[in-house]
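Exercise 3.2. Students should predict the tertiary structure of the chain below and write it as C-alpha coordinates, then compare their answer with the key that follows.

Predict this chain's 3D structure.
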Amino acid sequence: MQGVGVAIVPSSPMPCGRWLDATRAGSLQRVANRPILCHVLDALLDAGAVETAVLTPSEMAAEVEACVRREGPPDAGVRVLDCDAKTDPGGALRAIADFAGGKPMIVHRADGLLDAPLGGILDPLLGGDGPDVLLLVAQDVSDQQRLQPAVRRALRLAEIGSSAAALGLAGVCALAPGALQEIAGMPAALQGLEPADLPEALAAHASGRLEVRMVHEWRAFTGDPADLLDVNRIALDRIGTDIRPDRRRGNRIEGRVQIDASATVGSSVIYGPAVIGAGAVVRDSYVGPHTSIGEGVRLEGAEIEQSIVFAGACVLHVGRRLVASVVGRDAKVFRDFSVPRAMRLQVGDGDRVALC
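Answer key:
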Protein backbone atom coordinates (compact mmCIF):
# COMPACT_ATOMS: atom_id res chain seq x y z
CA MET A 1 0.00 0.00 0.00
CA GLN A 2 1.40 3.39 -0.92
CA GLY A 3 1.06 6.48 1.23
CA VAL A 4 0.08 10.11 0.83
CA GLY A 5 1.59 13.35 2.12
CA VAL A 6 -0.10 16.41 3.64
CA ALA A 7 1.56 19.77 4.31
CA ILE A 8 -0.23 21.86 6.95
CA VAL A 9 -0.06 25.65 6.73
CA PRO A 10 -0.25 27.14 10.26
CA SER A 11 -3.15 29.52 10.71
CA SER A 12 -1.27 32.23 12.62
CA PRO A 13 0.42 34.90 10.47
CA MET A 14 3.83 36.24 11.44
CA PRO A 15 3.84 39.23 13.78
CA CYS A 16 3.87 42.61 12.08
CA GLY A 17 7.35 44.00 11.67
CA ARG A 18 8.98 40.57 11.50
CA TRP A 19 8.07 39.50 7.98
CA LEU A 20 10.48 40.10 5.18
CA ASP A 21 8.95 39.09 1.86
CA ALA A 22 5.60 39.92 0.26
CA THR A 23 3.61 37.63 2.55
CA ARG A 24 3.04 37.26 6.28
CA ALA A 25 2.54 33.50 5.93
CA GLY A 26 5.68 31.85 7.31
CA SER A 27 5.27 28.81 5.06
CA LEU A 28 5.37 31.04 1.95
CA GLN A 29 8.58 32.84 2.86
CA ARG A 30 11.36 32.08 0.39
CA VAL A 31 14.45 29.99 1.11
CA ALA A 32 16.81 28.87 -1.65
CA ASN A 33 14.62 31.15 -3.83
CA ARG A 34 11.44 29.09 -3.39
CA PRO A 35 8.67 29.14 -0.75
CA ILE A 36 9.30 26.83 2.21
CA LEU A 37 6.00 25.08 1.37
CA CYS A 38 7.36 24.02 -2.04
CA HIS A 39 10.46 22.49 -0.44
CA VAL A 40 8.12 20.59 1.92
CA LEU A 41 6.11 19.23 -1.00
CA ASP A 42 9.36 18.10 -2.65
CA ALA A 43 10.30 16.29 0.56
CA LEU A 44 6.92 14.52 0.73
CA LEU A 45 7.24 13.29 -2.84
CA ASP A 46 10.83 12.17 -2.27
CA ALA A 47 9.61 10.20 0.77
CA GLY A 48 7.33 8.12 -1.46
CA ALA A 49 3.99 9.94 -1.18
CA VAL A 50 1.98 9.16 -4.31
CA GLU A 51 -0.48 11.99 -3.66
CA THR A 52 0.05 15.27 -1.85
CA ALA A 53 -2.24 17.94 -0.42
CA VAL A 54 -1.92 21.24 1.44
CA LEU A 55 -4.28 22.02 4.32
CA THR A 56 -4.61 25.79 4.53
CA PRO A 57 -6.75 28.30 6.45
CA SER A 58 -9.48 29.82 4.32
CA GLU A 59 -7.95 33.32 4.36
CA MET A 60 -4.69 32.00 2.87
CA ALA A 61 -6.18 29.54 0.38
CA ALA A 62 -5.92 31.75 -2.73
CA GLU A 63 -2.31 32.71 -1.98
CA VAL A 64 -1.32 29.11 -1.23
CA GLU A 65 -3.01 27.77 -4.36
CA ALA A 66 -1.26 30.38 -6.54
CA CYS A 67 2.07 29.52 -4.91
CA VAL A 68 1.66 25.78 -5.51
CA ARG A 69 0.57 26.32 -9.10
CA ARG A 70 3.48 28.67 -9.82
CA GLU A 71 6.38 27.05 -7.94
CA GLY A 72 5.28 23.69 -6.61
CA PRO A 73 6.53 20.33 -7.88
CA PRO A 74 5.62 20.09 -11.59
CA ASP A 75 2.92 17.59 -12.58
CA ALA A 76 2.41 16.53 -8.94
CA GLY A 77 -1.32 17.33 -8.90
CA VAL A 78 -1.18 18.87 -5.42
CA ARG A 79 -4.62 19.39 -3.90
CA VAL A 80 -5.39 22.40 -1.72
CA LEU A 81 -7.74 21.63 1.19
CA ASP A 82 -9.41 24.81 2.40
CA CYS A 83 -10.57 24.48 6.02
CA ASP A 84 -11.17 26.85 8.94
CA ALA A 85 -9.03 24.96 11.44
CA LYS A 86 -9.37 27.62 14.18
CA THR A 87 -13.10 27.10 14.62
CA ASP A 88 -13.24 23.43 13.66
CA PRO A 89 -9.94 21.59 14.28
CA GLY A 90 -11.76 18.25 14.19
CA GLY A 91 -13.12 19.07 10.74
CA ALA A 92 -9.61 19.95 9.57
CA LEU A 93 -8.28 16.58 10.74
CA ARG A 94 -11.21 14.75 9.15
CA ALA A 95 -10.48 16.55 5.86
CA ILE A 96 -6.93 15.18 6.00
CA ALA A 97 -8.21 11.69 6.84
CA ASP A 98 -10.70 11.79 3.97
CA PHE A 99 -7.90 12.80 1.58
CA ALA A 100 -5.76 9.89 2.79
CA GLY A 101 -8.60 7.50 2.00
CA GLY A 102 -7.35 4.63 4.15
CA LYS A 103 -3.69 4.96 3.13
CA PRO A 104 -0.84 5.65 5.54
CA MET A 105 0.22 9.28 5.49
CA ILE A 106 3.00 11.72 6.28
CA VAL A 107 1.91 14.98 7.91
CA HIS A 108 4.44 17.80 7.66
CA ARG A 109 4.33 21.41 8.89
CA ALA A 110 4.55 23.67 5.85
CA ASP A 111 6.88 26.21 7.50
CA GLY A 112 9.84 24.00 8.43
CA LEU A 113 12.34 21.44 7.22
CA LEU A 114 14.35 18.52 8.54
CA ASP A 115 18.06 18.46 7.84
CA ALA A 116 17.81 14.95 6.33
CA PRO A 117 15.57 13.34 3.66
CA LEU A 118 12.37 11.60 4.73
CA GLY A 119 13.15 8.50 2.69
CA GLY A 120 11.79 5.34 4.33
CA ILE A 121 9.61 7.10 6.90
CA LEU A 122 6.51 5.28 5.63
CA ASP A 123 8.14 1.84 5.58
CA PRO A 124 7.31 0.86 9.21
CA LEU A 125 3.63 1.66 8.58
CA LEU A 126 3.27 -0.40 5.41
CA GLY A 127 3.45 -3.77 7.15
CA GLY A 128 0.70 -5.24 9.25
CA ASP A 129 2.66 -5.20 12.52
CA GLY A 130 4.06 -1.66 12.37
CA PRO A 131 3.25 1.28 14.66
CA ASP A 132 0.10 3.35 14.40
CA VAL A 133 2.03 6.60 14.87
CA LEU A 134 5.65 7.42 14.10
CA LEU A 135 6.94 10.63 15.68
CA LEU A 136 10.28 12.27 14.92
CA VAL A 137 12.20 13.78 17.84
CA ALA A 138 14.94 16.23 16.89
CA GLN A 139 18.17 16.64 18.82
CA ASP A 140 18.68 20.20 17.58
CA VAL A 141 15.70 22.56 17.79
CA SER A 142 15.18 26.21 18.69
CA ASP A 143 14.49 26.98 22.36
CA GLN A 144 10.76 27.57 21.89
CA GLN A 145 10.33 24.17 20.22
CA ARG A 146 11.77 22.08 23.06
CA LEU A 147 9.63 19.35 24.62
CA GLN A 148 7.71 20.09 27.76
CA PRO A 149 8.35 17.67 30.67
CA ALA A 150 4.88 16.08 30.35
CA VAL A 151 5.48 15.26 26.68
CA ARG A 152 8.95 13.85 27.45
CA ARG A 153 7.35 11.56 30.02
CA ALA A 154 4.60 10.51 27.59
CA LEU A 155 7.23 9.58 25.01
CA ARG A 156 9.34 7.84 27.68
CA LEU A 157 12.45 9.81 26.86
CA ALA A 158 13.69 10.13 30.45
CA GLU A 159 16.19 7.29 29.96
CA ILE A 160 18.12 9.45 27.48
CA GLY A 161 19.43 11.47 30.41
CA SER A 162 20.01 15.19 30.85
CA SER A 163 20.21 15.73 27.09
CA ALA A 164 16.50 14.97 26.88
CA ALA A 165 15.84 18.56 27.97
CA ALA A 166 17.20 19.77 24.62
CA LEU A 167 15.01 17.52 22.50
CA GLY A 168 11.99 18.74 20.53
CA LEU A 169 9.28 17.22 18.39
CA ALA A 170 9.90 17.76 14.71
CA GLY A 171 6.89 19.01 12.78
CA VAL A 172 6.70 15.75 10.84
CA CYS A 173 4.90 12.52 11.69
CA ALA A 174 3.65 9.40 9.94
CA LEU A 175 0.30 7.76 10.67
CA ALA A 176 -1.18 4.39 9.87
CA PRO A 177 -4.74 4.28 8.46
CA GLY A 178 -7.27 5.16 11.14
CA ALA A 179 -4.84 6.85 13.56
CA LEU A 180 -6.00 10.34 12.63
CA GLN A 181 -9.71 9.55 13.00
CA GLU A 182 -9.03 8.58 16.61
CA ILE A 183 -7.60 12.00 17.46
CA ALA A 184 -10.30 13.80 15.45
CA GLY A 185 -12.94 12.17 17.65
CA MET A 186 -11.40 13.16 20.99
CA PRO A 187 -12.64 16.54 22.33
CA ALA A 188 -9.79 16.78 24.87
CA ALA A 189 -7.17 16.34 22.17
CA LEU A 190 -8.76 19.05 20.03
CA GLN A 191 -8.96 21.70 22.75
CA GLY A 192 -7.00 24.65 21.33
CA LEU A 193 -5.32 22.41 18.74
CA GLU A 194 -3.62 24.02 15.77
CA PRO A 195 -3.52 21.27 13.10
CA ALA A 196 0.14 22.13 12.42
CA ASP A 197 0.81 21.01 16.02
CA LEU A 198 -0.58 17.54 15.39
CA PRO A 199 2.62 15.76 16.56
CA GLU A 200 2.14 17.25 20.05
CA ALA A 201 -1.47 16.04 20.17
CA LEU A 202 -0.43 12.57 19.04
CA ALA A 203 2.31 12.42 21.68
CA ALA A 204 -0.17 13.32 24.42
CA HIS A 205 -3.29 11.41 23.31
CA ALA A 206 -2.53 8.61 20.84
CA SER A 207 -3.53 5.27 22.35
CA GLY A 208 -2.23 2.96 19.60
CA ARG A 209 1.29 1.70 19.03
CA LEU A 210 3.62 4.69 19.03
CA GLU A 211 7.20 4.68 17.80
CA VAL A 212 9.75 7.46 18.27
CA ARG A 213 12.61 7.98 15.84
CA MET A 214 15.51 10.33 16.54
CA VAL A 215 16.61 12.85 13.89
CA HIS A 216 19.29 15.52 14.09
CA GLU A 217 17.77 18.90 13.27
CA TRP A 218 14.36 20.49 12.70
CA ARG A 219 13.82 24.18 12.00
CA ALA A 220 10.55 26.05 11.48
CA PHE A 221 10.12 29.73 10.61
CA THR A 222 7.53 31.58 12.67
CA GLY A 223 8.90 35.11 12.38
CA ASP A 224 12.48 35.02 13.68
CA PRO A 225 14.95 35.83 10.86
CA ALA A 226 17.57 33.61 12.52
CA ASP A 227 15.27 30.60 12.04
CA LEU A 228 14.65 31.65 8.43
CA LEU A 229 18.40 31.55 7.81
CA ASP A 230 18.54 28.05 9.30
CA VAL A 231 15.73 26.84 7.04
CA ASN A 232 17.53 28.46 4.10
CA ARG A 233 20.71 26.57 5.03
CA ILE A 234 18.88 23.25 5.15
CA ALA A 235 17.19 23.89 1.79
CA LEU A 236 20.46 24.91 0.12
CA ASP A 237 22.19 21.77 1.38
CA ARG A 238 19.84 19.79 -0.89
CA ILE A 239 20.40 21.63 -4.18
CA GLY A 240 22.37 20.41 -7.17
CA THR A 241 24.47 22.40 -9.61
CA ASP A 242 22.90 24.32 -12.50
CA ILE A 243 25.34 26.67 -14.27
CA ARG A 244 25.79 27.41 -17.95
CA PRO A 245 29.42 26.63 -18.91
CA ASP A 246 30.06 30.17 -20.12
CA ARG A 247 29.24 31.55 -16.66
CA ARG A 248 32.56 30.28 -15.31
CA ARG A 249 34.57 32.60 -17.56
CA GLY A 250 35.77 35.57 -15.56
CA ASN A 251 34.33 34.12 -12.33
CA ARG A 252 35.43 31.63 -9.72
CA ILE A 253 32.59 29.23 -8.93
CA GLU A 254 33.00 26.28 -6.57
CA GLY A 255 30.59 23.81 -4.99
CA ARG A 256 26.88 23.36 -5.67
CA VAL A 257 25.69 26.58 -7.26
CA GLN A 258 22.55 27.40 -9.26
CA ILE A 259 22.54 30.51 -11.44
CA ASP A 260 19.40 31.39 -13.39
CA ALA A 261 19.94 31.69 -17.13
CA SER A 262 18.77 35.32 -17.08
CA ALA A 263 21.14 36.41 -14.29
CA THR A 264 24.35 38.34 -14.96
CA VAL A 265 27.49 37.38 -13.04
CA GLY A 266 30.86 39.01 -13.66
CA SER A 267 34.25 39.22 -11.94
CA SER A 268 32.87 37.45 -8.89
CA VAL A 269 33.63 34.56 -6.54
CA ILE A 270 30.77 32.22 -5.65
CA TYR A 271 31.10 29.33 -3.19
CA GLY A 272 28.13 26.99 -2.87
CA PRO A 273 25.71 25.94 -1.83
CA ALA A 274 24.23 29.13 -3.22
CA VAL A 275 21.51 30.23 -5.63
CA ILE A 276 21.25 33.35 -7.81
CA GLY A 277 17.78 34.16 -9.10
CA ALA A 278 16.32 35.39 -12.37
CA GLY A 279 17.46 38.79 -13.56
CA ALA A 280 19.95 39.24 -10.71
CA VAL A 281 23.15 41.20 -11.35
CA VAL A 282 26.28 40.17 -9.42
CA ARG A 283 29.46 42.10 -10.20
CA ASP A 284 32.83 42.34 -8.43
CA SER A 285 31.35 40.47 -5.49
CA TYR A 286 31.81 37.47 -3.23
CA VAL A 287 28.81 35.21 -2.57
CA GLY A 288 29.64 32.68 0.12
CA PRO A 289 28.07 29.38 1.20
CA HIS A 290 24.41 29.13 2.22
CA THR A 291 23.39 32.33 0.47
CA SER A 292 20.25 32.95 -1.59
CA ILE A 293 20.22 35.88 -4.02
CA GLY A 294 16.64 36.57 -5.16
CA GLU A 295 15.12 37.74 -8.43
CA GLY A 296 16.25 41.10 -9.72
CA VAL A 297 18.78 41.61 -6.93
CA ARG A 298 21.72 43.92 -7.63
CA LEU A 299 24.95 43.00 -5.86
CA GLU A 300 28.01 45.11 -6.67
CA GLY A 301 31.33 45.40 -4.85
CA ALA A 302 29.90 43.40 -1.97
CA GLU A 303 30.74 40.33 0.11
CA ILE A 304 27.97 38.23 1.62
CA GLU A 305 27.56 34.72 3.05
CA GLN A 306 25.06 32.67 5.08
CA SER A 307 22.41 35.19 4.09
CA ILE A 308 19.21 35.83 2.14
CA VAL A 309 18.69 38.78 -0.19
CA PHE A 310 15.06 39.02 -1.27
CA ALA A 311 13.81 40.05 -4.69
CA GLY A 312 14.60 43.53 -5.97
CA ALA A 313 17.05 44.43 -3.21
CA CYS A 314 20.43 46.15 -3.76
CA VAL A 315 23.67 45.66 -1.84
CA LEU A 316 26.27 48.10 -3.13
CA HIS A 317 29.89 48.69 -2.01
CA VAL A 318 29.13 48.33 1.70
CA GLY A 319 32.82 47.96 2.63
CA ARG A 320 32.33 45.04 5.07
CA ARG A 321 31.26 41.45 4.58
CA LEU A 322 27.60 40.75 5.41
CA VAL A 323 27.18 37.50 7.38
CA ALA A 324 23.99 35.85 8.68
CA SER A 325 21.93 38.73 7.27
CA VAL A 326 18.47 39.04 5.76
CA VAL A 327 17.86 41.88 3.29
CA GLY A 328 14.17 42.44 2.64
CA ARG A 329 12.36 42.84 -0.66
CA ASP A 330 13.33 46.03 -2.57
CA ALA A 331 15.60 47.14 0.29
CA LYS A 332 18.81 49.03 -0.43
CA VAL A 333 22.04 48.62 1.52
CA PHE A 334 24.85 50.88 0.35
CA ARG A 335 27.82 52.91 1.47
CA ASP A 336 27.17 56.65 1.41
CA PHE A 337 30.28 58.69 0.58
CA SER A 338 28.63 62.09 1.08
CA VAL A 339 29.63 64.44 3.92
CA PRO A 340 29.23 64.86 6.79
CA ARG A 341 30.19 61.22 7.35
CA ALA A 342 27.69 59.43 9.55
CA MET A 343 25.61 56.27 9.84
CA ARG A 344 22.17 56.79 8.35
CA LEU A 345 19.65 54.04 9.14
CA GLN A 346 16.01 53.48 8.25
CA VAL A 347 14.87 50.66 10.54
CA GLY A 348 11.32 49.35 10.75
CA ASP A 349 9.38 47.98 13.73
CA GLY A 350 10.98 44.82 15.09
CA ASP A 351 14.03 45.01 12.80
CA ARG A 352 17.51 44.41 14.20
CA VAL A 353 20.77 46.00 13.07
CA ALA A 354 24.14 44.87 14.46
CA LEU A 355 26.96 47.39 13.92
CA CYS A 356 30.45 45.84 14.05
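Discussion points: The first strand starts at residue 4 and ends at 8. The chain has two domains: 4-236, 245-334.
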